UniProtKB/TrEMBL annotation, chains A, B:
Example of a GO MF term: D-ribitol-5-phosphate cytidylyltransferase activity
EC number: 2.7.7.40
One GO process term, biological-process aspect: isoprenoid biosynthetic process
Catalytic EC class: transferase
Subcellular location per the Swiss-Prot or TrEMBL entry: Cytoplasm, Cytosol
Main location: cytoplasm
Pfam families, alphabetized: IspD (PF01128), ISPD_C (PF18706)
InterPro entries in UniProt: IspD/TarI (IPR034683), ISPD_C (IPR040635), ISPD_synthase_CS (IPR018294), Nucleotide-diphossugar_trans (IPR029044)
Gene coding for it: CRPPA
PANTHER family named in the record: D-RIBITOL-5-PHOSPHATE CYTIDYLYLTRANSFERASE (PTHR43015:SF1)
UniProt protein name: D-ribitol-5-phosphate cytidylyltransferase
Domain D-ribitol-5-phosphate cytidylyltransferase C-terminal: 233-380
Length: 401, 401
């Protein structure tokens, strides 16, 4: 059987599956797995992955094994699982963890709703761990959920940025080339294990720069910055109406567009029963700027927060919500408005529990067009900062532009 | 001649030279170069460094050559120069840059007050650039400031974290071992050039993990995080008096100590003509929490800002100043106090020009001890966030704990 080209041009970059695939109670979207099943019809029917994750990460210089080190409060291994899960033709993912980390791993799988994962006990060496994973796949146990695969991908738990294209290359090469003496001599040692215990073919394949391994503490820093950058590519400005072009929300949208290069800025109304907004949430936008105009205080922001809390968007990444309030400082001193707005601190504490980072932003509304533009520009800089940093220590603060 | 052990246990990590060495008008501290001259008496008398910096950085995926990419608004190459400059026994540093970047490089040397630097034109290849650097050192030109060195260190402009120990190993090995066939075969190619054109000995020496090269964009991210971490190791709490143990400044200091692990928290009074505080500034503390109690508004913060502006501390790294104000929210609503404190926005804009990041922090002062502790703890979290991120977009904001 020959493997075909990638069925989808969408890279398997970190980002959760659609909630249709992830959440049990949501059925609005088609299951990507069945769609992909048609597109990827020529892919091998039986691919599994084994992740040795029994290491202790002594080079990291931190007490936590590196696969469990948190990035944006989520363990590194969860990002790797997410990257593999997005590849629908990988049927089973077997993770080898030490006995003492078994419960931690189970709670990670539950908390981040990972699917198609089986756990086996890690061995004393990396080879033994891979062996245990392969054995679990090879055995035809009656109660096993696992099916014997044709190809097994062995993937480091600490390479979170693996893309579907590379995985496909691996699988294709394994099927086309078999394994040469060269691989056995110079390839990574686990090829030999794969050959010996799983009756599959294997071949050393070139990776991409993204496939790099988190080894040192500096790699954790880099991974965090890359992840932050990836989830900061889109901002949705939410307002009560889309009709009025002179709406301050639209003015802010325009300034955001001109100030923030490389960021997609869209706007959406809360009004229409939130149909479009729901789609934006489903499409995994992680940044919202909610403009409160017609209602006093936080009514619009609260509507948005409810929608976000009902969705599964916040499971994998912290979602930033900036609650924007316009005020003519000449008519009303900001202090007066702030009195009311201070309740944002309580909201922020509440929604932090659901992985939502809420900040307040008071923009000076001036009749003078130039002054208004300056305030909007300042507001855009603050919004960009909040989205870029995702700083938990500053939630509930009321910033002034 | 045999090279001795490192003369100083202090690593040559990024951090500016003392201002005695750096600023022309400051003579209070002894010149580190003359002190080190005694300690490092057994070091080779004539060591120079050549930095090929003519690359275009195509793997970085950004238009700016990587050696000029900014980290905390300062170009990467300046960090590398700083690391070499701190090693007092390196007498000359020759940088090879392309003609089109010559002016940029000159302005970097001027802005960050680098010393002992000479510029030569880069060649079309890395080898040619090294050749040009070595030639400048080898020539006995009448007008040349350069002296012919015994040993030349060839160092990538994009390895900013080189430590004195590694450089010493390189020099020692070069003098002790000469160059073997093994080096010529497997070592980096520039060994051959060094041998051929500089009449010196050379040897491949093992580096440290810190010596890594900034190649990809992710390396820039990692470098930025490492630098931020390094300059966030110490916080100085500045207040009007040191006598009163019940002073809110001391309470805040205690909470900072208990909340922030791995950070050294000290306190200092502004009062005593600022003598001690001046020493803390000279010792390169980059983070200040200024408690305003006896005076209204910003008098104490302004005194501190003046001291910082007069020092050379801010030349190499952005310095964080958090202006703290205590207020009993029950007696005075925060809004009333805020009216006055809003002028911090103007101060912040001004001092940003001098590389000082100023933020305001209003801490709720309560007679209830438990409530006060909670506010102080919240304040400590905010201070930690501000210091960790060094976010330019949020300067001049008044945060509430």
């Amino acid at each position: 059987m020959e493997a075909g080209p990638p069925g989808s041009s969408r890279p398997a970059e970190p980002g959760p599956c659609l909630s249709g695939q992830r959440g049990a109670d949501h059925t609005a979207s088609a299951s990507p797995q069945s769609v992909a099943g048609t597109e990827l019809g020529r892919h091998p029917q039986a691919v599994a992955a084994v992740l040795p994750a029994g290491g202790c990460g002594e080079r990291m210089g931190v007490p936590t094994p590196k696969q469990f080190c948190p990035i944006l409060e989520r363990p590194l291994i969860s990002y790797t699982l997410q990257a593999l899960e997005r590849v629908c033709w990988i049927k089973d993912i077997v993770v080898a963890v030490t006995g003492e980390n078994m419960e931690v791993m189970k709670s990670i799988i539950q908390k981040y709703q990972h699917k198609r994962i089986s756990l086996v006990k890690a061995g004393v060496t990396r080879h033994r761990s891979i062996f245990n994973g392969l054995k679990a796949l090879a055995e035809d146990q009656i109660n096993s959920k696992l099916s014997k695969p044709e190809v097994v991908i062995i993937h480091d738990a600490v390479r979170p940025f693996v893309e579907e294209g590379v995985l496909l290359k691996v699988v294709t090469a394994a099927k086309e080339h078999g394994c040469s003496d060269y691989d056995l001599e110079f390839g990574t040692e686990c090829l030999q294990l794969a050959l010996k215990y799983c009756c599959t073919k294997a071949k050393l394949v070139e990776g991409s720069p993204d496939l790099w391994k988190v080894t040192y503490k500096r790699d954790l820093y880099a991974a965090e910055s890359i992840i932050k950058e990836r989830i900061s590519q889109e901002i949705c400005v939410v307002m009560d109406t889309e009709e009025d072009n002179k709406h301050v929300g639209h003015l802010l949208e325009e300034v955001l567009k001109s100030e923030l290069n490389h960021v997609k800025v869209t706007s959406e109304a809360l009004g229409h029963a939130g149909r479009h907004l729901l789609q934006i949430i489903l499409d995994q936008c992680y940044n919202f700027v909610c403009v409160n105009v017609t209602t006093s205080d936080f009514q619009e922001t609260q509507k948005l927060l409810s929608m976000l809390e009902e969705s599964n968007l916040c499971i994998l990444y912290p979602v930033v919500v900036v609650s924007v309030h316009f005020l003519d400082f000449k008519l009303v001193p900001p202090s007066q408005k702030m009195e009311n707005l201070m309740q944002i601190r309580e909201f922020a504490k509440e929604v932090k529990e659901r992985n939502i980072l809420l900040y307040g932003l008071l923009i000076c509304y001036s009749q003078d067009d130039q002054k208004l533009q300056e305030s909007l520009r300042q507001g855009a800089i603050i919004i960009a900062s909040l989205i870029k940093e995702r700083n938990c220590g500053l939630i509930g603060q009321l910033l002034i532009a």
